[in-house]
Amino acid sequence: MPAPLTEERDRLDRAALLDAAERLFYERGIQAVGMDEVRAASALSLKRIYRFFPGKEDLVVAMLRRRDQRWRDSLATFVERISDPRERVLAVFDWLAEWFAEPGFRGCAWINAHGELGSASAAVLAEVRSHKQAFHDQLAEWVRATGVAVVEPVFLLVEGAVVTAGISGDPSPARHARTAAAALLGTP
Amino acid sequence: MPAPLTEERDRLDRAALLDAAERLFYERGIQAVGMDEVRAASALSLKRIYRFFPGKEDLVVAMLRRRDQRWRDSLATFVERISDPRERVLAVFDWLAEWFAEPGFRGCAWINAHGELGSASAAVLAEVRSHKQAFHDQLAEWVRATGVAVVEPVFLLVEGAVVTAGISGDPSPARHARTAAAALLGTP
DNA sequence: ATCGATGGAGAACGCACGTTCTCAACACTT
DNA sequence: AAGTGTTGAGAACGTGCGTTCTCCATCGAT
């Protein structure tokens, strides 16, 4: 019964493939990275890659979906250690500050994918919208718990900070957005 | 002395070329549009196009630069009709609301270009940063005139609104950002 | 009217991409 | 141990890109 062995290998290869794709696509853009480069970075054969995903678009969507899980889990884990609702919302911006300062930070993978493929690939567009909606809803819960009706402004501050830090390469938008969010939430 | 005639024709052709490039690149993305399509839309010969710009990258940069002029002029003309400093800043968001509602609105051309070419083309990256800096400085003047130190938050609200409206296709971020900006500026 | 240069149209080129195919090596069955 | 199906590695294929080249029409000068 060797089936479990190949299943385990599939799992690992699939993860290696998505790791390689995510890193390359985020670093250099999706269209700028060829499937052959993904093959080299993942140490898989092209045939095996196309067995996992029938086309590049499917790989991109799967990569975005898995990144969405990781990204939102990481954020939630970080902010939900803080129990005070107001401080919890402000912690979102602390998490952003850490993210912006990471080497290789290049802005939001979904916004970048949207700029690149939003008009060419309906599947990618749907994935981008799905991520933004999911993040919005997650954030909305945290903001609503403060009792102050500022969900939309706080969301827009986050998006503005991510975009601005991504383009300028400067992490200070996280600080500015945090200060503004604190003002909108009012003095405690 | 026929020189003025060819100079005038150059001016017109160059404008037609940049018009066509701007429309196509904004609608469908830069990498998704080939030079042959730009040729067809501009009704120029490929040879003539390459006489104006030695490569596609130069055309993209020139297109972004001209769009920057038009975009910021349009915004400035709109908001500078309003003399009250506070209302002038809020008018920025009214201008955004009109822009977002335009048919074919697809977010910020510079953010999209950054997502597509920011890591591949230093010239495009520089042009994107230059535009964002220029807009930031323009906005900073208007905000400073209110006497309230909220330049950065207002800037981030604008960026967040543009990105969110571009992805979702919904113009309401302009309203939400306006409300938040009014709150940050304080009650008059 | 003829010559020569200029410029237009688009065919042609080289390259790189996404995808598919070939074929040899291997593992598992009888 | 021989056969058979499956897999891996990468060559091959078709397409479409950015760019250059070829040819021919046009037009001003002599």
TrEMBL record, chains A, B:
Residues 11-71 form the HTH tetR-type domain. GO terms for molecular function: DNA binding. It comes from the Bacteria. Residues 34-53 bind DNA. Keywords: DNA-binding, Transcription, Transcription regulation. InterPro entries: Homeodomain-like_sf, HTH_TetR, Tet_transcr_reg_TetR-rel_C_sf. This is Transcriptional regulator, TetR family. It comes from Actinopolyspora xinjiangensis.
